[in-house]
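Fold it.
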Amino acid sequence: MVIQFTQQIETMRQYLKLQEAKEKYGENNVRKIFEILIEGRMYPVYGIEGYEHMLGQSNGCPASWWLDYSVYHTDDDDEEPTMRELVPYIDKGVHRICWGVNYRQYNSTKYKWDEWNIRSGGVCEITANNKPVYKFHWRDFEGALAVAQVKINDMIGHPFNFIYPEKEVGRKIWYYGLPAKILLGYEPGEIRIDPDFSYLSPQEWWDKLEERKSNVYPKDEKLDDDEELDRDLDKEYFDDSKHYGSINHGDAFYDKMIGWFRK
């Protein structure tokens, strides 16, 4: 009876589990394409060559895409591992990326010229699949939402991977025409620049960068106070970067000096 009951359950199963698909079609034919967020947890979508479902064919989507809806054990949750059958995946009606916008207004004070000034501000954080990917400051709510919408559209088409920035670490770029690599910044959406001394010595690299970044001032004209302050601050920032060995570039959208595609 036990054997018959087990066989009956097996015949009721419609689709393979991930491990079964790997064994039947081969590890090399099972490729993870992307992940989607479902009820707070990320699940992978696989392309399995040779294993197709009817939903894809009838909806004009790849018929070899499958969602692995299994729950695997991780150190940061207590949910029991659950091995489930693969689920036919189609893009229709699904958010490939679940975007979020969190906006918070605040007031602050500053003591200047023997009196207190009250100022307003706001900070807007954009998330993708519940993970912070970009942050900016904007005073009013309506303006922040408008800017957030533009930033989301820009992120989708930008060479930098805002959603998975960890994949960008070590990426080869040109920085002011000099060879460099990407490091992650200190805030979401920010980067640091790591000099690449493959073609130049460290001294040559920094000398060329200083020459290309420095403003050219008239030799015979005296700088006003603001210009002198800007020049001194730029010099101080450059010397600090050279001392630490990397450049805190900041916002990855600020990239007119970056050539993103270097072999």
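Helices lie at 2-12, 18-25, 54-59, 141-157, 202-213, 225-244.
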